[in-house]
Every structure is written in C-alpha cells, then in structure tokens.
Amino acid sequence: MQPTAPLCRRLRRLALTTKMVNNGYYKGTGSGSMGRHTKHGGYVIDLRKVRTYVVPEGLQNFKLTPFVTKNMEPLKGDFEGDPKGGLSGERYLDRWKRENGMD
Prior knowledge:
The protein has two helices and two strands, in the order H-E-E-H. By secondary structure, it is mainly α. Strands 1-2 form a two-stranded antiparallel sheet.
C-alpha cells in the first residue's frame, strides 16, 4: 500500500528523524559546545563559544507589554471543609459523577 502523491509531498516537509535515514545521522539538541575536552578527562570552557545575551538599552521605557497581565490575582481553590484539599479522591469522583452522569 502506497501513500498518495499529496500525502508524500506533505511527509517530505516534516523534520527528519533518526528513523527516516540510514546510520550516521545524529540530530543533536542544538545546544552546541562551549569548550573542549582535555586529555585528562576535564573540560575547558572557551569564552569565545559561550553565548552572551545583550539587553537592549531603554528596555524600561519600552511601550509593548507581554500578553500576560500583571494585575491578575492568584486563584484560590474551592476545598473548604476537605482535609485533603485538592488531592481528595472522593471529591474527584463526586465531581466526575456530577459532570458525566452515572454509568
């Protein structure tokens, strides 16, 4: 059984995995090396390879804000009268029966 031509085109656009190619393909994590190994089993960090992030000037006066509001109050759970709180199995089963009905 062969996939159709449009499906084959869509599959080619996906990222490669190690199962799609022969031996010798190593995907890695994208982290890169920050130094080198020594012959005595140590590791020497090369400061030219270390990533440094430069914060732009005037970031305090930046007009755009993140999508999350800073004014949101923390939510409180509704677990009054239950000594186990949110970990109570009885409370979970009661809620499940209310929402899904009896079997």
